[in-house]
Design goal:
Blueprint lengths: L7 H53 L7 E4 L3 E13 L4 E4 L4 H6 L4 E5 L5 E4 L4 E3 L3 H5 L10 E5 L10 E14 L7 E7 L5 E7 L4 E6 L4 E3 L8 E11 L12 E4 L2 E3 L7
C-alpha cells in the first residue's frame, strides 16, 4: 500500500496558515511587550512624582511666620523648624524630643522665639549646642520632658524664661537641569549655604511651583508678595528615564498636591 504525500497546493496552504499564526503570535508578543514597557514607564514616572511630593511636603508643612524667604516658579526658599523648646534663664533651653536623623543632618540657620503678640522674631546669628546647666531650668520650674534635653544658645537674654522657641534651617528646593540625567530636569535641595544636592529626577519641563493666596487659597502662577503666600501647589510632572518601546517620548505622570501653611513676612 502506497502513502500519498502532500500536494503542492496543500503544502502552500499549510505554510500560509503557519505564516498567519506566526505573524499573529509575533504581534501578540510585541503588543504584550509594549504594554509591559508602558506600565513600567508609568510606574517609574509615578514613583518619581510621589517621592518628590513626600520629600517636599514633609518640610513645607512646618513653615510658619516669616517662613518663606524667596519664591519663584522654579524654586522656593523657606525656614524649616527642626528643634522646639522653651527658654530658661541665661542661655539655656529645654527642648522636646527631636528626630535624630533630621537633627544630625540639619544646618543651623538661627533661632525664632514667640513674641507676646503671637508672632515670631528671628535671629540668624544665634547657634545652639547640646547640653546646659539643669539649674537654669529648674530655677524657673521648667522641666525637661521625657526624651527631650537641654541646649545652650550662643547668646543669652533673647527673651524671658518660659518663651517658646525653635531652631530652624534655611532650605531651598529648586527644579533645574539634572546632573545625573543630562538634558532632563531634576529636583535639587540646598540647606543653608551648603552645596545643592540632586535628590530626584527626571521631571517634565512643566514642573514648577504655583502659589496659594488669600483665605480661599486661590492658585497664582506668578510669585506674589511673600506676605501673601499661604501655601504652595506642587505641579510635579514625573517622567520615566526612557521612552517605552514603541513611544517617541518618556511617559509622564502628573501630580498636583497642595500644601497649606502659615506665613507672614517678618524680618
Amino acid at each position: 500500500m502506497t502513502r500519498r504525500g502532500l500536494t503542492l497546493i496543500e503544502l502552500i496552504i499549510t505554510l500560509v496558515i503557519f505564516g498567519i499564526l506566526g505573524t499573529a503570535l509575533a504581534r501578540l508578543m510585541i503588543s504584550n511587550s509594549r504594554f509591559v514597557g508602558r506600565q513600567e514607564a508609568q510606574l517609574e514616572a509615578r514613583q518619581t512624582a510621589r517621592a518628590a511630593m513626600h520629600v517636599i511636603t514633609a518640610e513645607l508643612r512646618l513653615v510658619s511666620d516669616g517662613g518663606v524667604r524667596a519664591a519663584a516658579a522654579e524654586s522656593v526658599t523657606v525656614r524649616i523648624p527642626y528643634v522646639f523648646g522653651v527658654l530658661c534663664r541665661n542661655a539655656t533651653g529645654a527642648v522636646t524630643p527631636a528626630d535624630s536623623v533630621i537633627s544630625a543632618s540639619a544646618v543651623q540657620g538661627g533661632i525664632a522665639w514667640r513674641l507676646v503678640s503671637g508672632s515670631y522674631a528671628f535671629d540668624s546669628t544665634v547657634t545652639m549646642s547640646t547640653g546646659g546647666p539643669a539649674s537654669d531650668c529648674t530655677a524657673d520650674s521648667i522641666k525637661v520632658v521625657p526624651g527631650g534635653g537641654r541646649v545652650t544658645l550662643s547668646r543669652s537674654g533673647i527673651a524671658p524664661p518660659g518663651t517658646v522657641f525653635y531652631i530652624f534651617q534655611r532650605v531651598t528646593y529648586k527644579f533645574a537641569a539634572s546632573a545625573q540625567l543630562p538634558g532632563r530636569l531634576g529636583l535639587w535641595r540646598q540647606v543653608g549655604g551648603g552645596a545643592a544636592e540632586e535628590i530626584l529626577s527626571p521631571f517634565g519641563t512643566a514642573t514648577r511651583f504655583a502659589f496659594l493666596t488669600g483665605t480661599r487659597l486661590l492658585v497664582q502662577t506668578a510669585p506674589p508678595p511673600l506676605n501673601q503666600i499661604q501655601g504652595l501647589e506642587l505641579r510635579l510632572v514625573g517622567e520615566s528615564e526612557r521612552p517605552p518601546n514603541g513611544a517617541a517620548t518618556p511617559t509622564q505622570y502628573v501630580l498636583m498636591p497642595r500644601v497649606k501653611f502659615v506665613n507672614r513676612v517678618i524680618q
